[in-house]
Amino acid sequence: QAPGKWPYINLLPGEGDSYDDYLEKFVEICKPPIISYDRYVLGEDGKFGVGFWVNIAQVRDCSVKHKIPFWNIVLTAPHWHYRELTPADLRMQVFGSLVYGAQGISYYKFCSGSLPILDAPDLGNFRMGPLDEFGEKTQVWDWLRNVNRQVLNLAPVYLKLKSVDVYHVAQDIPARNHGPSSSTLVKTVPNGEWVVGDFTHEDGSRYVMIVNRSIQHSSVCNPEFNQPVTKLEYVSPIDGKTKPYPSPYYWLAPGQGVLLRVTVEKK
Fold first, then answer.
1. How far apart are the C-alpha atoms of 172 and 189, rounded to whole Å?
2. pTM greater than 0.90
3. Quick one: CA torsion of 76, 79, 83, 86, rounded to 10 degrees?
4. Regarding beta strands 186-188 and 224-225, do their DSSP bridges make them parallel or antiparallel, or are they unpaired?
5. Are the C-beta atoms of residues 189 and 195 closer than 8 Å to each other?
6. How far from chain centre, in Å, is Cα 265?
7. CA distance linking residue 167 with residue 202, whole number of Å
8. With 0-12 CB in 10 A as exposed, 13-18 as middle and 19+ as buried, what is 137?
9. Over the stretch 84-99, which tens digit does the pLDDT of each residue have?
10. Residue 213 near residue 170 (C-beta atoms within 8 A)
11. H or E element: which one contains 240?
């Protein structure tokens, strides 16, 4: 009905076998150019809900199976029982999406006030989005700009990467996820709790993204690899340049991720 227009559908969140079926039927029937969904886990208890990792693992599996990129919509405007955000909340949602290979990040929503379309009602406790109820910038606007600038600097490299595997280095591994194995690039990351993504660049080089999974504590990031590494570099989120990795002194703030280029010793 709209030749040349790009169809966009955002899926509901979910878990379990029924959600797998939901994703499969969506791909089969709608034949979408992307798989987009949302899952908000920032409750007023201050925790980062484990459902984030379960849901995104299932969406990634579907994305990889059908070779369709996936997007994630993350929360930026508190409402209902969702809490007012912290910088760590923003970082965790964004880098927690990228480590799974997300090709797009969207935000719900940029303004806290009622939307001037579709007669969207005022639901009462929308607040502290990047723009408040009066259209004025909040501190979240600056936090979001900071994270977006980091992603923009990583994008020239990141968008040439193919997600190979994702795994958690932690005592508690969420459902539909797994820990490191002999086939993963990273064997472990001492101290703290982490989620790690293995990637292959279009030129054949290998990359790893490591995200600090703690919502409260910074941790030093010193990964140990399954194979001898002859060269370890990182893509700076500040200027986008690839530089020698400053191990053992590189720390990650809560929710922060780092993208590493890993040169493995040739056999």
1. 15
2. yes
3. 20
4. antiparallel
5. no
6. 29
7. 22
8. exposed
9. 999 999 999 999 999 9
10. yes
11. none
Q: Cα angle at 188 between 15 and 147, to 5 degrees?
A: 60
212: β partners: 194
Phi, psi of 29 (to 5 degrees): -85, -45
For the record, the structure tokens of 21 come out as 């079926």
Using the structure block, give the residue that is written with the tokens 């922060």.
256
Token readout for 14 is: 């979910």
Q: 137: which 2 tokens?
A: 């910038």
Q: What is the pLDDT of residues 204-238, one digit of tens each?
A: 999 999 999 999 999 999 999 999 999 999 999 99
**Amino acid making up residue 172:** D
Closest by CA to 27, choosing from 58, 53, 54, is 58
Instruction: For residue 51, give the nearest of 64, 71, 37 by alpha carbon.
Output: 37
Backbone φ and ψ of 66, nearest 5°:
-100, 0
Q: Calculate helix-pair angle for 87-98, 139-158, nearest 10 degrees.
A: 20
How many Å apart are CA 54 and CA 257, to the nearest integer? Answer: 19
> What CA–CA distance (Å, rounded) separates 171 from 57?
18
User: CA–CA separation, 48 vs 235, rounded Å?
Assistant: 26
Q: How far, CA to CA in Å, does 186 sit from each of 80, 181, 182, 243, 248?
A: 39, 8, 9, 20, 16
